[in-house]
Structure formats: C-alpha cells, structure tokens
Design goal:
This protein is of the alpha/beta class. 38% of the residues lie in helices and 38% in strands.
Length: 265
C-alpha cells in the first residue's frame, strides 16, 4: 500500500516545489528546496527533481559580500588582524546556515558576483590609542600614639614613650586611555541599495599604574601607601596591545549583533 502511494506523494511534493519556485523570491525558493528533497525521498530521481532542487537551492542562498576596512593610523603601525579574524570566525559560524554565504570583495570578483544580495561594511570610524593622564598627589601623614622610645623605671622596668610620627608622601597616578568606535552597515543590494542596518559599537580600555615615595617615618603611612611607595614606575603596554584590549568589548558586541541579525535568514 505504501509503495502505491509513493508516486502520488512524490508528485504532490514536486508540484508544491514548482509552485513555490514560480513565486520567484528567496523565501519561497527555500521552501521549494525542501519540497524537492521530500519528493526525491519518496521516489529517488523523480522527474527532474535533482535539477529543480539545485535551482531552488541556488535561488535560496543569500550572497553577502563582507568588506572589512583596514585600520588607518597616522601615529602607530596598528593592525586589526586579530579583530577581523574574530569577525570572520563569526561569519563562518553564521554560514552553518546552509542558505547564507559570505565573500570577501576578492572572492566576489573571482566568481563574478556583481550584484550580491547584501553588503556588510565594518569600519574603525574613530579611535584614540594612548591618551595619557598623569597626576601627582602630595599628602602629609601623621599618626598619634606611636611608640617613639622607652624610659627606664625603678626596679629595671621600662615604659614606652608614645608620640606622633610624620611623613610626606608623594603618589603618582598614570592613566592611559584607549577607545574607539566601530561601525557596522548592512546594505540591501538586490532591490534598492538601502541600508537595512547601521550601528556603532564603542569600546574603551584604561591602563593604570601608581607608584610613589615618602620622606619621614613609614609608620605614619597606611598599608596601601607603603605598597605604592614600594613600586617603581613601569612602562605602559605597547600601543598595539592597547588597541587589541579596547577592541575586545567592541568585538563581542559586533559578533552578537551579526549572529542575531542573520538568525532570521
């Protein structure tokens, strides 16, 4: 009985696929593709189902060119390689959806993809690396009731002499701020060249260091001041590392936005 209905089931799926394909839009082509696969399951090689499935699949794919703009800096040799490597990882993750394909401009040129469905542009709009702020804080410290000596009492006993100890403390603060904005634009190219998404993603990283010295009695200092005074001034991390650090939060926001945007496709 099952064998007798297979041709009818195959024809029903095939006809549904052809009807959807005639609607000539991506969403319908996607549905048509699955109908053709079902027809082929009922009767392998039914009519020209393989050719129609291939045609439906071709029409259902969203072709997207991703333009990842290089980093421009007048002051530093900065590389966005790590940033864009992570972006490409996200695009590969999105491509697990078999109906989305991303291409670099070079790849699009190689396959002569002149009119992609969408174009993604990711650009470092504005950034500052190594904006330095320093300040010096001078404090006069005093502490009462500190043992400053001893006196001898009768019978060989001793008594502590309490007094006030003082110190001048100089604490140096250095703060180096790196921040920037990355823009994401997605343009619909097939119909009207209109922007369907535009969003800015800000990020910031602050490198901070304190060191100091004092004159006077260290017992007048707090434990925190003693720790700072024991430090030496150190050199800040290199500009490239600061660049990488401030782009980390941007990268996370951007990747999440791309994933959520293409989830509906």
């Amino acid at each position: 009985a099952l064998e007798r209905i297979k041709p009818f089931a195959a024809e029903e799926q095939y006809a549904a696929g052809m009807g959807l394909l005639r609607q000539n839009d991506r969403a319908s082509a996607k549905q048509a593709y699955f109908h053709f696969l079902e027809a082929d399951k009922f009767i392998p090689g039914y009519k020209d189902v393989a050719d129609q499935a291939e045609e439906a699949y071709h029409r259902a794919i969203l072709h997207v060119v991703a333009r990842l703009q290089p980093v421009q800096s007048r002051f530093y040799e900065l590389s966005g390689e790590e940033f864009f490597r992570q972006v490409n990882n996200t695009l590969s993750q999105i491509e697990r959806n078999e109906f989305i394909r991303f291409y670099s401009p070079e790849e699009a040129q190689e396959i002569n993809l002149q009119r992609p469905d969408q174009v993604i542009e990711i650009n470092f709009e504005d950034f500052v690396v190594g904006e330095t702020h320093t300040r010096e804080i001078v404090e006069k410290m005093e502490r009462d009731s500190v043992k400053v000596g001893e006196i001898d009492l009768a019978g060989g006993r001793k008594k502590d002499v309490l007094g006030t100890v003082k110190a001048d403390v100089v604490i140096n603060h250095m703060e180096i701020v790196s921040r920037g904005v990355v823009s994401l634009t997605i343009t619909e190219r097939q119909m009207s060249d209109k922007n369907i998404l535009y969003q800015d993603f800000p990020g910031q990283f602050v490198w901070f260091h304190e060191w100091g010295h004092f004159n006077g009695d260290d017992r007048a200092l707090t434990p925190e001041q003693i720790e700072v005074c024991n430090r030496r001034r150190i050199e800040p991390i290199p500009p490239q590392q600061m660049f990488v650090e401030f782009t980390r939060p941007i990268q996370q926001q951007l990747n999440n936005r791309l994933l959520s945007f293409y989830r509906g496709y």
